[in-house]
Specification:
Blueprint: H1 7-14, H2 16-26, H3 30-46, H4 57-78, H5 97-111, H6 115-126, H7 131-138, H8 142-162
Helix pairs in contact: 2-3, 2-4, 3-4, 6-8, 7-8
């Protein structure tokens, strides 16, 4: 070994074949087993001061590995790697042209409304302003705002029902 050799860490290195074999009981994939061994070693080195000299190092390391494996299982159940229907599985996206056309039709229809109705419609339905605030902004009563909004909705509805939205 080298000059700064530590008997404690040397013993851990001697346990690597046993750790790899034990990891294979948890993981069928060799890469996953190697990752589990690595996680075990990191945890063991971080908490080596908790190891009681004179006890079995192998048992201590196996306990750490088992706990690391079960922690990974718990994490994976809480934080799945990907949804069953992952975005990457979608080879194509639905066309958005139809929505764009409908949005333009609605915009055009709104612009054909008289200005007071259009103003109230935009304030309340698009901006989310309350009736009281819309009345204050428009300088009229709440009843007038409700009436303008009702007429604007009726005009738009009639226009789209007739099919002359363009």
């Amino acid at each position: 070994m080298y000059e700064d050799s530590n008997p404690a860490t040397d013993n851990v290195v001697e346990m690597l074949p046993a750790l790899r074999a034990f990891a294979r009981t948890f993981c069928s994939n060799q890469n996953d087993a190697d990752d589990l061994v690595q996680e075990t070693l990191v945890r063991a080195l971080n908490s080596y001061d908790t190891f009681t000299p004179g006890t079995r190092l192998k048992s201590w390391l196996f306990t750490i590995m088992r706990n690391a494996f079960y922690t990974q299982i718990k994490k994976s159940s809480r934080e799945p790697v990907g949804a069953m229907r992952c975005v990457s599985d979608k080879r194509s996206m639905p066309a958005s042209q139809e929505w764009t056309v409908h949005a333009k039709e609605v915009e055009t229809a709104i612009h054909t409304l008289p200005a007071p109705q259009r103003e109230v419609l935009v304030l309340i339905t698009i901006e989310g302003v309350s009736y009281e605030d819309a009345a204050h902004i428009c300088g009229c009563n709440i009843g007038t705002v409700k009436s303008r909004l009702n007429r604007a909705r009726a005009r738009l509805s009639a226009r789209f029902e007739r099919g002359d939205a363009q």
